């Protein structure tokens, strides 16, 4: 008999875990905190695969009209010179100082149509206000009318193929195709945040239960795990792909018209919440400016071209030339981590606790907390910030990603993470620069899926 899952309150579709207490607020709904445990779930995207429904409802905004690419090119720093139908791009909006204020996914579904995810409110505000020009484009909010499920890991292709009955061996990275699952029309995207091979399945919200159950039934014999909100941010850190609210903040807009738009436009309630005060933590929390980042710091500079006008162009041209910092992965020293943990059992002021696998459980209580810690050189000078700390259960290492002055980014370079809040006891934890991105298993962008053998069923439960 096929398993059926009950939807959690307030979300279009997110199955309940076995224990009702394991809930956590996520965005504007409720998500399962854990299904098995965080170690088991994080290991899945290196050994089998996971199925994640916790991003529902995703902000979804459809742009349609002959000027759709012209409009996106004016607002986004993303390069749209090559953007054929079926292609996926990372959408990036900056302010006039070159700081990232919005990022998300753009999917071109027709010559005159682009589906956007997590690009509200910047795109709809720019379109409706006419601040950056008039364009022959119409926008439509689809949030809550559609779903997306994420499947990441070595056997993800086999799961989606079994559920859809479609051969995906010729679907390239950042491409999409139309298909059916459980008799329902869906779109399959080769994209994911785990770093390993990954896919997303999109469809109409009324079909969500049937599609989810079909994916789960197809994946269970292959060791599929369901992913909770506790460990969801960890796949971004291992993948080396920073995420808003986990790894960086978007600076509060100085545009009063935008803030008035959010207050007066129905459906923008969550955007007002996201634009509200955050609670910075970590040794860098005495300077909130260190929580804001430009595309070059986060490793996204390669998507920018300066052959047209867009928001923040002049600032980004200057930032590119300065080339101050770049993204790295740090491995934290095992003995120093143990000393931090042991300090709570000594007759002394303990260091800041390091018991949890991450510094953030993805907005578990709507507090909006986020941590940045200073990176120091041997002279105690700040040479960068680190964020997204996690206990990587598969690799048996404590890692983090961060922005580091370029002269210190050579592999093997030793630095110090300043651990602890300002004004409290702090410790310099030794760390070294290692490979970036850290997850080096079956990378989605380089894997030739045509050469992969078919997955074999397992006894995993």
Radius of gyration: 22 Å
State the share of residues found in helices, binned by percent: 10-25%
Distance between the termini: 16 Å
Tally of helical segments? 10
Shape: globular
**Which class best fits the helix and strand makeup?**
alpha+beta
Low-confidence stretches: 1-10, 23-28, 361-367
Strand runs, count = 21
| SS strand fraction | 25-35%
Overall pLDDT level: 89
Main pleated-sheet profile: 6 strands, mixed
Order the strands across the largest sheet as they lie in space: 10-11-12-9-3-13
Q: How is this structure best described in words?
A:
The chain is of the alpha+beta class. The protein contains ten helices and 21 strands. The chain has a six-stranded mixed beta sheet with strand order 10-11-12-9-3-13, with helices on both faces. Helix 4 (156-164) packs across helix 5. The chain starts with 22 loop residues before the first strand and ends in a 27-residue tail after the last strand.
Chain-wise SSE layout:
Elements: E1 23-26, E2 29-32, H1 38-47, E3 49-52, E4 60-64, H2 68-75, E5 88-94, E6 100-110, E7 113-117, H3 122-129, E8 138-141, E9 146-152, H4 156-164, E10 176-181, E11 184-189, E12 198-204, H5 208-219, E13 224-226, H6 232-239, H7 256-264, H8 269-274, E14 279-281, H9 313-322, E15 325-332, H10 334-342, E16 369-371, E17 373-376, E18 382-392, E19 397-405, E20 414-419, E21 427-434
Parallel strand pairs: 3-13, 14-16
Antiparallel strand pairs: 1-2, 3-9, 4-7, 4-8, 5-6, 6-7, 9-12, 10-11, 11-12, 15-19, 15-21, 17-18, 17-20, 18-19, 20-21
Helix pairs in contact: 4-5
């Amino acid at each position: 008999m096929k398993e059926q899952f009950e939807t959690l309150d307030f979300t279009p579709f997110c199955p309940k875990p076995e224990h009702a207490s394991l809930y956590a607020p996520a965005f504007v709904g409720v998500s399962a905190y854990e299904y098995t445990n965080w170690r088991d779930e994080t290991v899945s995207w290196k050994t089998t695969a996971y199925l994640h429904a916790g991003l529902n409802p995703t902000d979804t905004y459809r742009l349609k009209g002959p000027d759709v690419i012209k409009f996106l090119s004016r607002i986004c720093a993303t390069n749209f010179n090559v953007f054929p139908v079926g292609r996926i791009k990372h959408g990036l909006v900056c302010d006039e100082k070159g700081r990232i204020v919005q990022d998300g996914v753009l999917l071109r579904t027709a010559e005159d149509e682009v589906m956007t995810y997590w690009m509200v409110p910047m795109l709809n505000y720019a379109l409706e206000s006419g601040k950056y020009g008039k364009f022959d484009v119409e926008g439509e909010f689809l949030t809550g009318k559609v779903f997306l499920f994420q499947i990441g890991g070595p056997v993800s292709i086999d799961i989606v193929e079994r559920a859809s009955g479609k051969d995906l061996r010729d679907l390239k990275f950042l491409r999409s195709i139309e298909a059916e699952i459980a008799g329902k029309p869906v779109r399959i995207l080769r994209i994911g945040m785990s770093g390993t091979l990954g896919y997303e399945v999109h469809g109409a919200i009324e079909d969500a239960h049937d599609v989810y159950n079909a994916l789960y039934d197809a994946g269970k014999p292959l060791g599929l795990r369901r992913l909770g909100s506790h460990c969801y941010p960890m796949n971004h850190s291992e993948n080396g792909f920073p995420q808003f609210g986990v790894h960086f903040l978007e600076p509060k807009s100085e545009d009063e018209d935008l803030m008035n738009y959010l207050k007066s436009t129905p459906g923008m309630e969550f955007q007002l919440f996201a634009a509200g005060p955050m609670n910075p933590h970590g040794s860098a929390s005495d300077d909130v400016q260190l929580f804001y980042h430009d595309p070059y710091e986060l490793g996204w500079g390669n998507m920018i071209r300066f052959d047209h006008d867009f928001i923040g162009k002049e600032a980004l041209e200057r930032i590119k030339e300065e080339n101050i910092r770049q993204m790295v992965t740090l491995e934290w020293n095992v003995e120093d981590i143990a000393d931090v943990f042991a300090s709570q059992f000594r007759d002394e002021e303990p260091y800041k606790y390091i018991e949890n696998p991450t510094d953030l459980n993805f907005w578990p209580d709507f507090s909006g907390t986020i941590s940045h810690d200073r990176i120091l050189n041997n002279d105690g000078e700040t040479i960068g910030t680190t964020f997204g700390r996690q206990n990587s259960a598969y690799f048996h290492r404590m890692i983090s990603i961060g922005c580091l002055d370029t002269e210190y980014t050579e592999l093997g370079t030793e630095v110090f993470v300043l651990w602890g809040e300002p004004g409290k006891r702090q410790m310099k934890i030794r760390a070294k620069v290692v490979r970036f991105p850290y997850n080096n298993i079956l990378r989605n962008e380089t894997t030739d899926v045509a050469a992969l053998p078919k997955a074999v069923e397992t006894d995993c439960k």
